[in-house]
Specification:
- The relative contact order is 0.07.
- The chain is of the alpha+beta class.
- A hairpin with a 2-residue loop joins β5 and β6.
- Helix content is 39%, strand content 18%.
- The chain starts with 14 loop residues before the first helix and ends with a helix.
- It is globular, with a radius of gyration of 25 Å.
- The chain has a 6-stranded mixed sheet with strand order 1-2-8-7-6-5, with helices on both faces.
């Protein structure tokens, strides 16, 4: 049984704490130990503390975090925690590690089917925001220099770097979700929502019962819109993986270089749009198609057909 994480000192929820609790909820459903790779925005004490409090029956931390450290972060050598004091003589400025190339180790890193050479230096240091040790890895990747931090002190540096390197897939997913599918192009609002003022937060409890109901409906509409967009993106990815040959055979666009035999989501979307707009007679006329035709913006369709 997994013990849920508690709040941080009774402070109100933030984006960081909400993300931490969302990660725990997702991990608890799988029942397996896992790692979460996050960007530097989440490299804060609350994120590490919340994940640290969620443990399994055998006292293992449920989720370990791997994130990018900010450039002004520092670490300290081992000392007695009860004193709660930190000596500047024991302080390590993380970005200063790059001035000592003789302490770096060269290794081969394989990601996305490609291998490249990197240099890294690893050290476990005391991190002040959590009063506990964190594994810091200073990395030279070509001209890039950055520092990663991980809550798991037993995970090898190469594994930490490999896990974090796959975080870029999340950015690509959001790129397609936003610009290709339009997952964040919703326009749901209600006049019942409290007006936003500078230095003043919305006070939802002051709304009437009907106002709160309308506000709830707006939030549900937004969540459903984004979820449907996510499902649509997932269907494009599924078709790209399972119907690659058919997609390429029906694609009439032009690509300067085909980087992969697996078509992108944009290619799949282009094929589906072409099949729907120019081969409508192939789709059986049914109630679902009737609904789509009623919702379709016909003036945009006619412009596309003329072009």
């Amino acid at each position: 049984m997994i013990r849920p994480a508690k709040g941080i000192n009774g402070k109100p929820a933030t984006i960081v704490t909400r993300m931490a609790n969302l990660v725990l909820q997702s991990a608890s459903k799988t029942g397996q130990l896992c790692y979460v790779a996050l960007d530097a925005y989440f490299s804060t004490g609350p994120m590490f503390l919340i994940l640290k409090t969620a443990v399994t029956d055998d006292a293992q931390q449920l989720v370990h975090v791997i994130t990018r450290a900010k450039k002004n972060y520092v670490g300290f050598l081992d000392r007695e925690f009860s004193t709660k004091k930190y000596d500047d003589d024991d302080k390590f400025i993380l970005m200063d590690w790059f001035d000592f190339p003789e302490f770096f180790t060269t290794a081969q890193l394989s990601t996305y089917g490609k291998s490249r050479t990197i240099e890294y230096m690893c050290m476990d240091l005391l991190w002040r925001p959590i009063d506990d040790f964190v594994r810091f890895i200073c990395i030279k990747d070509g001209d890039g220099k950055y520092v990663l931090m991980c809550s798991d002190l037993n995970l090898s540096p190469i594994d930490i770097i490999t896990i974090y390197s796959y975080r870029s897939k999340i950015e690509v997913m959001f790129l397609f979700l936003k610009h290709l599918v339009g997952g964040f192009c919703y326009r749901f609002w209600t006049k019942s929502w409290p007006k936003l003022k500078r230095k003043k937060k919305s006070d939802l409890p002051t709304l009437s019962e009907s106002g709160r109901e309308k506000a709830t409906q707006v939030v549900e509409a937004i969540e459903r819109f984004v979820n449907i967009a996510g499902i649509s993106l997932g269907l494009l990815q599924y078709l790209a993986l399972t119907r690659a040959a058919e997609i390429w055979g029906s694609y009439h666009g032009w690509l300067r270089t085909r980087s992969s035999e697996t078509p992108s989501e944009a290619v799949v979307q282009s094929v589906i749009q072409t099949e729907y707009f120019y081969s409508g007679e192939k789709v059986p006329f049914c109630n679902t198609l009737r609904i789509i035709n009623r919702k379709r913006r016909k003036h945009l369709l006619y412009e596309d057909l003329e072009n």
